[in-house]
Amino acid sequence: MPLRQFLLFTVISLLACVVLILLLDQPLAGFIHAHSAWSAPFFARLTATADSAHEALMAHVIGLPIIFLLLGLAFAIGRYVLKKRGGTLFLVLLLTHEFSMVLANVLKGAVHRLRPEVQFGTGYAGSGLWAEGPHNDSFPSYHTAVYFSLFWPLAVAFPKYRLPLLVLPGLIALGRLVLGAHYLSDVWFSLWLVVALTFLFGRLDKPRPAAA
C-alpha cells in the first residue's frame, strides 16, 4: 500500500470512528440486533470453531506458541536458506499478528467501553467509554484484530487471492456485530490497526537503496 493511500485510509478511518462512537454506533447496533437474530447461531458456531483452531495454534512448545515457531522457521528458511526476499512475508505476518493481539488487549484495558449487550439490556447514557463495571471491554474488537492480522498481510502480498483470503476474517468481524459483542467502530478500528501494522512491518520487505 503506498504511503499516500495509507494516510488517506487512516484519516477516513479515524474520522469515521469518532462519528460512529458519538452518533451512530448505538442506533446501528440496535438495528442489527433487531434484524439479524436469525443468523446469530451461524456466527456463534463459526467464531467458536475459528477460536478453537487459533487456540490450538497458540499452544506453547518450548516456551513459544506453535504459530510463532512455524512462522519464524518459515522466515528463516525462506530468507536465509533459500535466499528468497519474499520469505520476509512470514516475519511480517508474525509481527503483525502478535502486535495486533497485544495492542488490541492494551487498548481494551485503557478505553473500558461498554459492549452493545449492555445497551440491549439495562442501557446506559453516553458513548460507554471509560465505564465502570463488567462488559466494558468492547473497544477495539480483539477477534477482528486476531483474524484480520492472520490474513491481511497475505491479502496484500497476493492481491489476486485477496477476496477468498478475507472471507473468514470478514465473517468473523460481521459476527461480532451480529452477536452484539462489538460496535461498528470497534471493528473498524481493529481493521485500521491491522492495516497500520501491516504497513509498518511491510517496510521490512522493501529493498534498501544501494550505498553510493
Describe this structure in words.
This protein has helices at 3-35, 40-57, 66-81, 88-111, 116-120, 142-157, 162-165, 167-178, 184-202, and strands at residues 60-61, 64-65. By secondary structure, it is mostly helical. The chain has a two-stranded antiparallel sheet. A hairpin with a 2-residue loop joins strand 1 (60-61) and strand 2 (64-65). Helix 1 (3-35) runs antiparallel to helix 9 (184-202). The longest helix has 33 residues, at 3-35. It starts with a helix and ends in a 10-residue tail after the last helix.
In short:
This protein is mostly helical and 212 residues long. Helix content is 69%, strand content 2%. It has a two-stranded antiparallel sheet with strand order 1-2.
Cα radius of gyration in angstroms: 19 Å
Total number of β-strand segments? Answer: 2
Broad structural category:
mainly alpha
Strand content: under 5%
Mean pLDDT reading = 94
